Amino acid sequence: MQSGRLACVAGAALAASAAFSQVNEQVFVKEAVQSNLSELQLGELAAQRGESEEVRKFGEMLRTDHHAALQRTMNIAKSLKMEPPAEPTTEARGFYEGLSQLSGSQFDAAFVSHMIMAHEEAIAQYSRNASSDNDALAAMVADTLPKLKAHLAAAQALQRGSAAHPPLH
Asked: How far apart are the C-alpha atoms of 54 and 51, rounded to whole Å?
């Protein structure tokens, strides 16, 4: 009788753990979709409005890489049977609006500073999800992390002023 209860409790704990894992995966995927949407929009803005050629090239790289990442993340969202968000967070939309009011070197400086912060946060978030039990999610994280790190290095190079040859791929 006791072992039956123990098995029941263990089974319930396993089910709760699986449900928690699924919720965590969905939260991460939602945030990843929103982040990719934001980076895509900001990349487009930088490609159009950046004062320096390096910032415009960086914006193009963001557009390309985050478009591909967005498509992959949307597919994972569908596999998790969740409705992915259609737009970035309210905070990201507010930053975009503020950034779109800037021009010249002010635009470049604010954009690059934000890219450093956003990519540091994204790297931390993706790193926390690197060991997901969901194979597609773990593979996406493994493929995306090097690109996020390259974006961070490029933004840092731009901020340091060594933008003549930032590590763009």
From this structure: 9
In angstroms, the CA 46 to CA 102 distance is: 11
Q: How far apart are CA 133 and CA 1, in angstroms?
A: 33
> Distance between CA atoms of 55 and 113, rounded to whole angstroms?
12
Question: pTM to 2 decimals?
Answer: 0.81
Within 10 Å of residue 2's Cβ, how many Cβ atoms?
6
What is the average per-residue pLDDT within 150-162?
A: 92
Q: Tokens 């803005």 — which residue?
A: 45
Q: Which two tokens stand for residue 112?
A: 């690059």
Q: How far is residue 72's CA from residue 128's CA, in Å, rounded to a whole number?
A: 19
Token reading at 46? 């930088």
- Is 8 a residue whose pLDDT tops 60? no
In whole angstroms, give the CA distance from residue 73 to residue 63. Answer: 15
26-160: CATH homologous superfamily? Answer: Ferritin, core subunit, four-helix bundle (1.20.1260.10)
The overall average pLDDT reported for the chain is 86
